[in-house]
Every structure is written in structure tokens, then in C-alpha cells.
Design goal:
It is a single chain. The chain is mainly beta and 155 residues long. It is 6% helix and 52% strand. The chain has one helix at 44-52; strands spanning 7-12, 16-21, 30-34, 56-63, 66-67, 76-79, 84-88, 93-103, 106-113, 122-130, 134-140, 146-154. Strands 5-4-12-11-10-9-8-7-6 form a nine-stranded antiparallel beta sheet, with helices on one face. The protein has a three-stranded antiparallel beta sheet with strand order 1-2-3, with no helix packed on it. The radius of gyration is 18 Å and the shape is globular. The N and C termini lie far apart (41 Å). The mean pLDDT is 86.
Length: 155
């Protein structure tokens, strides 16, 4: 077998992902990916500044694994420095609030929108990653598995 084979995820966490080669019978090839430790504390101000720059759209919204991205089709989001967020699709304007805080070593994103685009409301978003053009938030279940995914991309 090689890396181009199909792989099953055996387990995953923030630090490690373990795979087994897919196929018939009992797997005999395993692959483990480990994260290089990052000993720095994430900076909430950096994520706030990123979101406050330009406008954003929802690229992906997975609710318990189900793709519900279409709920946000056509909406452009503006994250304001005063903690308000506005979204518009050209006909409808929707308001809400947002905040970023540090909880331990996790950047927590709180997002609350009015109807009809309030499907992604939740107080427990964890910032999985962010760059100047893409931000990925997740919600984890009690076993620390990713349950929901919300990805914003900059317009």
C-alpha cells in the first residue's frame, strides 16, 4: 500500500489523527499524524482584526455533518468593531452580534444572528484555524469530536 490508498480515520483530536488503510479484512498498515506543539497563546485581537477587515461569506456550514451551506447563499457578512454583525443578500438585511474571547488556550467565537439565517447560532464555537482570507470554526461534542463546522471566506 501507499499514501494514495484509501484510509479510515481511527481517531482524531487537536494533537493527533490516526488512520488505518482501508480494504478488506483487518488493516495491517497504519498512519499517525501529530501536530507540532504550539506553545504560544492565541491572540483574540488578531482574530477580531481579521474578521473586521472586509466582508465575508459562509463557504461551508456543516450541521452535525449535514451540509446546510445553502441557508447562507448570497449573504455577505460585515463584522463591526462594536460587536455587531450585519448580513445582506441585496434584498434582506439581517443583524446580529459576535465576539471573540480566550478560554484557556482556545479562541472562542460567539455568533448570534436574527432569523432567517440563525442556523449557525451557537455559543460554543472553537476557532480551528484562521488566515487573512479564511476562518474555520467548529463545535465539538462531549467526546471532543467535531460536530459542526462553519467556514467564512473573505469576499
Amino acid at each position: 500500500g501507499g499514501l494514495e490508498d484509501d484510509w479510515l480515520v481511527l481517531s482524531s483530536s487537536m494533537e493527533i489523527i490516526e488512520f488505518a488503510e482501508a480494504g478488506s479484512g483487518s488493516p495491517d498498515t497504519f498512519l499517525t499524524l501529530e501536530r507540532e506543539p504550539n506553545n504560544s497563546t492565541p491572540d483574540p485581537a488578531e482574530l477580531r482584526s481579521t474578521l473586521e477587515t472586509g466582508t465575508w461569506y459562509v463557504d461551508t456550514f456543516l450541521d452535525a455533518g449535514e451540509d446546510d451551506t445553502n441557508v447562507f447563499d448570497g449573504f455577505t457578512f460585515t463584522f463591526n468593531p462594536n460587536g455587531t454583525v450585519s448580513a445582506t443578500d441585496g434584498t434582506e438585511d439581517v443583524d446580529g452580534t459576535w465576539s471573540v474571547a480566550l478560554s484557556g488556550d482556545i479562541l472562542v467565537f460567539d455568533f448570534d444572528m436574527d432569523s432567517p439565517i440563525n442556523d449557525a447560532d451557537d455559543d460554543d464555537y472553537e476557532t480551528l484555524s484562521f488566515s487573512e482570507t479564511e476562518v474555520t470554526f467548529v463545535i465539538r461534542d462531549s467526546s471532543n469530536n467535531i460536530e459542526d463546522t462553519l467556514i467564512f471566506k473573505q469576499n
